[in-house]
Amino acid sequence: MRALIVIAYWIWMLLKWRGEGSRGEEVEEMEEEEEEEEEEKNIQEKEKMTKKLKSGVVDRYGPLHEWCS
After folding, report:
1. What distance in Å separates the CA atoms of residue 38 and residue 60, rounded to the nearest whole number?
2. What pTM was estimated for this model as a whole?
3. In this prediction, what percent of the chain has a pLDDT beyond 90?
4. What is the CA radius of gyration of the chain?
5. Which of 44, 43, 42, 65 is nearest to 53 (CA)?
6. Annotated region Disordered: where (predicted)?
7. 31 and 22 in contact (C-beta within 8 Å)?
8. CA atoms within 13 A on the CB side of 40
9. What distances in angstroms separate CA 43 from CA 15, 23, 65, one per listed residue?
10. Which among 41, 61, 9, 38 is positioned nearest to 1, based on CA atoms?
11. 68 C-beta neighbours (distance < 10 Å), count
């Protein structure tokens, strides 16, 4: 009787462990997707800032043409 309980427990733990493993992979995939989205947003923001800097709209130290000459 004890042997059946122990075997059932092992099977339950194995199934539980395998289930957590697949969930862990899903979580990793979601985290990777979020990181990729953040990287894309950062790239877009950098592109916007470079466009603004090139047009002279945003410059910390004054007009851009003063630094270029």
Report:
1. 25
2. 0.44
3. 25
4. 28
5. 65
6. 22-49
7. no
8. 6
9. 42, 30, 25
10. 9
11. 7
Q: What type of residue sits at position 18?
A: R
Region 7-15: mean pLDDT is 89
- The whole-angstrom separation of Cα 35 and Cα 64 is 33
Q: What does the block give as tokens for 13? A: 């733990």
Map residue 56 onto helix, strand or coil.
coil
Whole-angstrom distance, CA of residue 25 vs CA of residue 5: 30
In one letter, which amino acid is 59? Answer: D
Return all residues near 59 (Cβ < 8 A) that are at least 6 apart: 53, 67
